[in-house]
Amino acid sequence: MRFVFALAAGSVLAGAAYAQFRSIPEAAKRGDIRHRQDMVVEISGKVQRLAPGAQIRDASNRLVVPTALPPGAPVKYVMDAQGMVRQVWILTPEEAAQR
Protein backbone atom coordinates (compact mmCIF):
# COMPACT_ATOMS: atom_id res chain seq x y z
CA MET A 1 0.00 0.00 0.00
CA ARG A 2 2.84 2.38 0.80
CA PHE A 3 4.37 1.65 -2.58
CA VAL A 4 1.15 2.62 -4.38
CA PHE A 5 0.90 5.85 -2.36
CA ALA A 6 4.55 6.70 -3.06
CA LEU A 7 4.06 6.01 -6.76
CA ALA A 8 0.96 8.22 -6.90
CA ALA A 9 2.69 11.04 -5.01
CA GLY A 10 5.71 10.81 -7.29
CA SER A 11 3.61 11.06 -10.43
CA VAL A 12 1.81 14.16 -9.10
CA LEU A 13 5.09 15.84 -8.22
CA ALA A 14 6.62 14.93 -11.57
CA GLY A 15 3.66 16.49 -13.37
CA ALA A 16 4.00 19.69 -11.35
CA ALA A 17 7.74 19.85 -12.05
CA TYR A 18 7.20 19.32 -15.78
CA ALA A 19 4.74 22.21 -15.91
CA GLN A 20 7.49 24.55 -14.68
CA PHE A 21 9.54 24.08 -17.86
CA ARG A 22 7.89 25.60 -20.90
CA SER A 23 9.70 26.15 -24.15
CA ILE A 24 8.19 29.28 -25.65
CA PRO A 25 10.08 30.23 -28.82
CA GLU A 26 12.04 33.48 -28.71
CA ALA A 27 10.32 34.56 -31.93
CA ALA A 28 6.85 34.30 -30.32
CA LYS A 29 4.89 37.54 -30.41
CA ARG A 30 3.27 39.00 -27.34
CA GLY A 31 -0.28 40.26 -26.85
CA ASP A 32 -3.54 40.10 -24.92
CA ILE A 33 -6.13 37.57 -26.08
CA ARG A 34 -9.92 37.34 -26.12
CA HIS A 35 -12.11 34.62 -27.60
CA ARG A 36 -14.52 35.99 -30.24
CA GLN A 37 -16.32 32.98 -31.71
CA ASP A 38 -15.56 29.40 -32.75
CA MET A 39 -11.96 29.42 -34.00
CA VAL A 40 -11.60 33.21 -33.97
CA VAL A 41 -9.70 35.17 -31.32
CA GLU A 42 -8.72 38.78 -30.87
CA ILE A 43 -5.07 39.40 -30.03
CA SER A 44 -4.13 42.95 -29.07
CA GLY A 45 -7.20 44.30 -30.86
CA LYS A 46 -6.62 42.39 -34.11
CA VAL A 47 -9.01 39.59 -35.09
CA GLN A 48 -7.10 36.39 -35.88
CA ARG A 49 -8.20 32.92 -36.95
CA LEU A 50 -6.85 29.86 -35.13
CA ALA A 51 -5.15 27.33 -37.40
CA PRO A 52 -6.60 23.82 -37.63
CA GLY A 53 -5.07 21.89 -34.74
CA ALA A 54 -3.97 25.05 -32.93
CA GLN A 55 -2.74 24.49 -29.39
CA ILE A 56 -3.56 26.82 -26.52
CA ARG A 57 -1.69 26.16 -23.28
CA ASP A 58 -2.64 27.70 -19.96
CA ALA A 59 -0.23 28.94 -17.29
CA SER A 60 0.12 25.35 -16.01
CA ASN A 61 0.97 24.15 -19.53
CA ARG A 62 -2.33 22.28 -19.94
CA LEU A 63 -4.21 22.33 -23.23
CA VAL A 64 -7.37 24.45 -23.14
CA VAL A 65 -10.16 25.05 -25.63
CA PRO A 66 -10.61 28.54 -27.12
CA THR A 67 -13.84 29.16 -25.19
CA ALA A 68 -11.93 28.73 -21.90
CA LEU A 69 -9.59 31.66 -22.61
CA PRO A 70 -9.64 34.24 -19.83
CA PRO A 71 -10.51 37.61 -21.46
CA GLY A 72 -7.53 39.91 -21.75
CA ALA A 73 -5.00 37.29 -20.65
CA PRO A 74 -1.37 38.07 -21.53
CA VAL A 75 -0.08 35.56 -24.08
CA LYS A 76 2.74 34.71 -26.41
CA TYR A 77 1.77 33.23 -29.75
CA VAL A 78 3.19 31.87 -33.00
CA MET A 79 1.64 32.23 -36.45
CA ASP A 80 1.79 29.64 -39.24
CA ALA A 81 2.72 30.21 -42.91
CA GLN A 82 -0.91 31.05 -43.78
CA GLY A 83 -1.09 33.81 -41.17
CA MET A 84 -3.20 31.84 -38.68
CA VAL A 85 -2.43 31.47 -34.98
CA ARG A 86 -0.77 28.07 -34.51
CA GLN A 87 0.30 28.06 -30.84
CA VAL A 88 -0.67 30.17 -27.82
CA TRP A 89 0.82 30.21 -24.33
CA ILE A 90 -1.11 31.99 -21.57
CA LEU A 91 1.61 33.62 -19.49
CA THR A 92 2.12 33.18 -15.77
CA PRO A 93 2.39 36.41 -13.73
CA GLU A 94 6.18 35.94 -13.63
CA GLU A 95 6.41 35.46 -17.41
CA ALA A 96 4.12 38.45 -18.01
CA ALA A 97 6.32 40.66 -15.81
CA GLN A 98 9.45 39.86 -17.87
CA ARG A 99 8.28 41.79 -20.94
> Which fold name fills CATH's third level, the topology?
OB fold (Dihydrolipoamide Acetyltransferase, E2P)
Q: How much helix, percentage-wise, in residues?
A: 10-25%
Elements, N to C (H/E): HEEEEEH
From the spread of the alpha carbons, the general shape counts as: elongated
Provide the β-strand percentage band: 35-45%
* Uncertain residue segments: none
Mean pLDDT level: 88
Distinct helical segment count: 2
Query: What separation lies between the terminal Cα atoms?
Result: 47 Å
* Widest β-sheet, arrangement of strands: 1-2-3-5-4
Can you identify the CATH class?
A: Mainly Beta
CATH architecture: Beta Barrel
Cα gyration radius (Å): 16 Å
The main β sheet shows up as: 5 strands, mixed, barrel
Secondary-structure-derived class: alpha+beta
- Please indicate the count of domains: 1
The number of strands is 5
Topology of this protein?
Blueprint (H helix, E strand, L loop, with lengths): L1 H18 L9 E9 L2 E4 L2 E12 L15 E7 L5 E6 L2 H6 L1
Parallel strand pairs: 3-5
Antiparallel strand pairs: 1-2, 1-4, 2-3, 4-5
Describe the structure.
The chain is an alpha+beta fold and 99 residues long. It has one domain (2-98): OB fold (Dihydrolipoamide Acetyltransferase, E2P). It has helices at 2-19, 93-98; strands spanning 29-37, 40-43, 46-57, 73-79, 85-90. The chain has a 5-stranded mixed beta barrel. The mean pLDDT is 88.
